[in-house]
Amino acid sequence: MGGENQKPMDYCGVFGIYCQDKCLSRTETGTFSQQHRGTTKNGLSGIVGDNIITETGKGLVKEFYKNRQDLRLTMKDMNLAIGCASVTSVPIEPCYGNFDFSIALNGRIFNQDEIAEDYRQNGRSFHTKEDIEILAKEIASGNNPVDGIKGYLNKMLEGKILGSTSAVMLTKEGVYVFRDPWGVKPLSYGSFKDRKQTVYFAASEDRAMQVLSGKIIDMTDVKPGEILLINKNGIKSMGRIDSGKRKHCAFEWGYTASFDSKIELIPVHLAREYIGKKLAQKDRNRDGRDVVVAGIPQSGVGHALGYHSISGHQYGEVFHKFGFSGRSYILPTQEERDREAQQKLTLIPSSIKDKIIFLEDDSIVRGTQMRKKVESLMEAGAREVHVRVGCPPLVQPCFGDKSTKSQDELAARKYPESTLEDKMCKEVGANSLKYNSVDDLLDAIIQADLKWNGKQTITEDDFCTYCFDREAKIPTISK
Fold first, then answer.
1. Are residues 192 and 277 part of one domain?
2. Coil, strand or helix: which one is 460?
């Protein structure tokens, strides 16, 4: 995605499926379709006979399946499975008790330390301090899967569990799919015909449909607080814990989601183009001679195309993204992140020399990589570099994932709003720097909604903008 290699790093992609045959290969393909959301760990669970078998590994999905050829023997006959592409140490958590299950999570429990300490004081074992272990323990305390899930979601509503949850859970009766009461993180489901069978599945992003079926078939978003069951009988609603409001992560459209996905039926690529148009409106009447508009691959490209369409300035590519590199932001150390970023993006000198470059990116976290990108462009002969940032300044660590652990890691947090752009401009070494406002970002997504759906299906109140708000509060009923 974007060039700022220290982007939020705890997103995950989850996948669940029922099919009569080829379940293992389809689980691989479906999980691979979510690879952009996590590249450090991955895994799968499947029903084999009367048992839930869970396997996890490091690295990319394709590498994991290639190195585990034994799975094609041990799991070849299953027809229910879940998968996860993750950056957490435990991508899938198995649990055995009143009922057996395994679970994969895209989200975060913000107050996990407090909950873990409460467990210990009440004599409950706790091993990893991972969010997914808390989720599994809460669900396992129910009398059955639906009872456990509803109990967990109700605790979220009451403010006892803070954060976000989009999850798939494998049981012997099927794959349960559920989302927190505000729908913070994306989750969708759908089906398609393959010869004489119907394949039913769920995934974090709807691009899974194209990758699995090779066709453009609309998927449906899981409603906030909704619980679904996928099995041989199809997809059935098992109830809903409704908060009465939506709080979808606005950052998904700006950065996280894949360019070819739709989030809440709003195309990501279209939203990013409108985000770029908002930036261009801040630079009206500029002389276009020797000006090149360029995006930092990958998510910055959509912003650049939108900026180009309004400004009329030439669109160009100043960085080449090497297709065989990984995502640098998920690596554990700064040295590894820097090395991966250097290998991933290389300069295109002929597009840079003597040019005035308007460089578009989705966001700035710590500012380290943006500074290096600006320096490299100037060293390659750019006359000026003007940075334009699609998302508003990040000033809060996200409550819905472990993007950043503290405000100290956020460059924009250091400066008051009145001088923020000037200070950040100096910090990254650019000739100028401008951000979109929160209103700009939300209006861009709404414009994309109107363009694609022919009517407005989402409002400003339906977005979570916690990470852009210095005084934000986590959504619950009681807080």
1. no
2. helix
12, 95, 391, 398: which is the annotated catalytic residue? Answer: 12
- Amino acid sitting at position 240: R
The string of pLDDT tens digits covering residues 315-324 is 999 999 886 5
Q: At what angle do helices 420-428 and 368-379 cross, to 10 degrees?
A: 60
Alpha-carbon span 233 to 245, nearest angstrom: 31
Query: Half-sphere exposure of residue 441, counting CA atoms within 13 Å on the CB side?
Result: 26
Q: Which DSSP letter does residue 409 get? A: G
Question: Distance (Å, rounded) from C-alpha 253 to C-alpha 274?
Answer: 11
Q: Domain with 401 in it: what CATH number?
A: 3.40.50.2020
| Residues in contact with 74: Cβ distance below 8 Å, sequence separation at least 6, in sequence order | 48, 53
Under 8 Å between Cβ of 24 and 80: no
- 19 given a catalytic annotation: no
Q: Does any domain span residue 223?
A: yes
Predicted confidence (pLDDT) at residue 300 exceeds the cutoff of 80: yes
- Whole-number Å distance between alpha carbons of 324 and 355: 29
Domain boundary among 213, 244, 275: 244
57 and 166 co-located in one domain? yes
Report pLDDT for 113.
86
Containing structural domain, residue 373: 267-441
Domain count, the chain: 2
Closest CA to 252 of 142, 150, 359, 401: 401
Euclidean distance between CA atoms 217 and 215, whole angstroms: 6
C-beta of residue 417 within 8 angstroms of C-beta of residue 392: no
Residue 478 lies in a domain: no
- Percent pLDDT > 90 in the chain is 72
Q: Which of 224, 215, 221, 222 is nearest to 193 (CA)?
A: 215
Alpha helices (H) along 230-280: 251, 268-280
Which tens digit of pLDDT belongs to each residue from 38-66?
Answer: 888 999 999 999 999 999 999 899 999 99
Dihedrals phi, psi of 333, to nearest 5 degrees: -120, 155
In angstroms, the Cα distances linking 405 to 20, 317, 337, 379, 409 are 43, 33, 17, 34, 7
In 100-171, alpha helices (H): 112-121, 131-140, 145-158
pLDDT band at 3 (very low <50, low <70, confident <90, very high): very low
Q: What is the pTM for the complete model shown? A: 0.92
Sheet with strand 220-221: strands edge to edge: 51-58, 41-48, 80-86, 13-18, 197-203, 188-194, 220-221
Report d(CA 35, CA 351) in Å as an integer. 31
